[in-house]
Amino acid sequence: MQQTVQAIIDDLSGVIYGKQQQIKLALTCLFSQGHLLIEDLPGMGKTTLSHALAAVLGLTYQRVQFTSDLLPSDILGSSIFNANKHEFTFHKGPIFSQVVLADEINRAGPKTQSALLEAMEENQVTMDGDKHALPSPFFVIATQNPLYQSGTYPLPESQLDRFFMRISLGFPPKDAERKLILGQNNRDYDRLPVRINAAQLIEIQNKISTVTLSTPVVDYILALVWATRNNSQFANALSPRASIALGKAAQAWAFIDGRDFVTPDDVQVIFASVTEHRLGLNHDVSAQQLNQLLNDVNVPL
After folding, report:
1. In sequence order, what DSSP letters do the residues of 48-105 get, joined into one string?
2. What is the pLDDT of residues 171-189, one digit of tens each?
3. CATH of the domain spanning 209-301, picked from 2.160.10.10, 1.10.8.80, 3.90.1720.10, 3.40.50.2300
């Protein structure tokens, strides 16, 4: 299985150049059964990463472009009257896919943004009193533009907290960007090898919980969380949901590295991606603040 995971990373690295760390974080989020928020400038490869990820994993994929006039029914679906049967029939929206890209999510209004809440939290959609189960596995990748850009709406705190991780791709290295200028980018997703199927992905997700979280590592996570609750420089302290996410993400990162136990280093690697958007909410939290927090908390030996 570890060879397969490494092959997935290598395949994605052939599409998104110079971003192996971010690719591993995206897989960490998926293996942890969470949802991913990618914040970056337009044209940085956010859509490419999500499409390639779905292709390599053999999952169904839908992309929804969020705009100011997008309605919740455009995402979830709607009930349409069938004149022949004299009844309403529910027509599923793009949310009924295994990988859903919510592109530029903060360009839609709050009502449309909140339409994702139930789907992300409960893996189901309720329409006209009926519950409709979403496919399994179910993975939402949302991209958002920086809040200083025009036409953006800040995500509400309740929805921001439901994203398991937030990452940023950033500018590519010069040698990678040179390949892009020369047209050496592989965006023929249909030619990417399918490394695993949905059943195997679910098997991996189930294995993550078997990776050992020792008592010292759990205590370390608790110490980090409680340090945010006694620090006024953060807009919001980390909640128990964040504590759980830190544990799961560290387990998934250890699994990707081929280990069946978590070390404090695993917690440190995923810490910023899991906590930054929760600590600052819609305010910036600097890398220096997070590094200072990690330095202030003793690491178990």
Report:
1. HHHHHHHHHTT--EEEEE--TT--HHHHHEEEEEETTTTEEEEEE-TTSSSEEEEETG
2. 888 888 888 888 776 666 7
3. 1.10.8.80
